[in-house]
Amino acid sequence: MSHRERRQSVSRRFLLGFNPEALRLRRTALKMSRGDLARAANLSVNAIAAWESGRRTPQVDSLAQVAAALKCEIGMFVEMRPGERSLADLRVLAGLTQPQLGKLVGISTTVISSLERAESGLSDARAAALAQALNVDIETIKAGYAKARNRAPGERP
After folding, report:
1. pTM of the entire structure?
2. Are residues 101 and 132 in the same domain?
3. Are residues 130 and 104 in the same domain?
């Protein structure tokens, strides 16, 4: 992967709700060493170790690679209550970065970011496109948008 591709694929949002113990338990249940997982996910052993120890939190695209290697969903490692998921949370659970989601729905990363912060309006057409891309219903998209829209000043979307 080129530097430009890597830069475009990375989500800078801190991965809230990441559970390092869940990652370790899944890996060990499959009898995989950290090295085995690193090779299967095309990541470094040091990254896997840092995530499992809680010293670092993975980026969503890297965690998607790990989930694929462990044959499970990202939701196994990220704790988010269904009724409290923002648009950004829904994107993370789908294993997508903002640029990846933008490409799927045909809108810019800037617009995706603005929608996740509820700083621009969510049209029915965009809600439908996001719902399809994230494999959820439109009401879930609207609820995620409303969560960000109704947050307290200074609260993260």
Report:
1. 0.75
2. yes
3. yes
